[in-house]
Design goal:
It contains 17 helices and 5 strands. The chain is mainly alpha-helical. β1 and β2 form a beta hairpin. It starts with a strand and ends in a 29-residue tail after the last helix. The structure holds acetyl coenzyme *A. Acetyl coenzyme *A binds next to loops.
Length: 429
Amino acid sequence: MAKDTLAILDNRTGKSYELPITDGAIRATDLRQIRTGPDDFGLLSYDPAFMNTASTRSAITFIDGDAGILHYRGYPIEQLAEHASFLEVAYLLIFGELPTARALEDWTWQITHHTWVHENVKTFMDGFHHDAHTMSMLISSVAALSTFYPDAKVNHDPGHQDLQIYRLIAKVPTLAAFAYRHRLGQFYVYPDNDLSYTGNFLSMLFKATELKYKPQPAVERALEVLFILHADHEQNCSTNAMRSVGSSGVDPYSAVAAAAAALYGPLHGGANEAVLRMLRAIGSISRIPDFVKSVKAGEGKLMGFGHRVYKNYDPRARIIKRMADEVFAVTRPSPLLPVALELERIALADEYFVSRKLYPNVDFYSGLIYEALGLPVEMFPVLFAIPRTAGWLAQWKEMVGDAEQKIARPRQIYTGPGQRDFVPLGRRA
Ligand code: ACO
């Protein structure tokens, strides 16, 4: 009968080993018993960029990259995007179940009543250069939140953890909007507790002299859907940063700042910004063939295409593409949409992209919607970071409660010189 084990023969020693396979994985530490002698540390698995290493067991998000499937806690992303609010989804990610009406009311109240930030936040926001990138301001100001909550280091009391979660999900949009207004040189708009999570964010971004800002329902809902789509994506670069930094026991404000910094890079959440810059640089449909040729010649990437996990159409891109028309009906249509559609069409028919299974990812169309909302490209990664804060915190809470997790500390294969004696400055070649 087939056994759930892996038989290994070490040709260096002639010894055989049998390692258990659980859930399709062997434990890397089981390899340590495979040694050439007592001084041998034991066999390591070498996996730069974690191409084939699971670092956790997680019950939060499921992705089938080949089939283009994304579930949060078992619920398909399409159903959540159609029927749920962002706060319901955030609750689902963090606590594992959709909230009851009572739980949702309490959760919404908690988030709504933690949106205000200490007045001193405005002082350090003012200290940023007038054209500082909004994502850098967000990262720095989230890190600075930890100075207001010095007791927030990892604590296993769920009430204590939940308080930090309320604060972070509530305050990140406030910090993001303050950063945006700082760049514009405009006054900061305080949170409006009468509005929804996304409605309040739009108010903090766009309110001018009117007494009460009224978000356009179609825009408010579009932002809600974009937030749902970006809320979590299992063990990506920024989530790995959240878990890795959080595993040291640091407060979650510092860990979210680290995760946001990881998200900022152009290969991750900064890609939506890069997509829009790319579409602007292409400019017109007639220039697409030359652009695609340059990508194939290795002169640059087709930003918003490709994914480490999806080797099929990213289900989030499909939802955003559908939603774009609804948004453009109430805003002005994006002049870059025809360029994006044609670029996608050409790439999906081109052998280079087909053979490498490169499809549009979530960032390909999201920037066009953000642009239609009147937001500058510098805000795009910020708009990703706001909803992803819920995912990072869900992953952090799961990690903190996982008895198997310890401080994250990868191994290395040392390739430097052997021991040698110090050379005084005057004798160095
Ligand atoms: N344009 C052109 N070629 C590409 C692209 C692209 N966007 N993405 C991958 N390739 C090519 C690579 O050059 C490589 O080709 P080769 O086999 O001839 O060397 C092959 O496809 C495999 O790509 P890898 O880089 O090995 O794939 P990896 O899983 O490491 O990278 C990544 C995934 C970083 C997302 C990559 O596809 C990329 O840089 N895409 C553009 C940036 C982007 O859109 N990022 C957003 C990702 S989604 C998110 O983070 C929210």
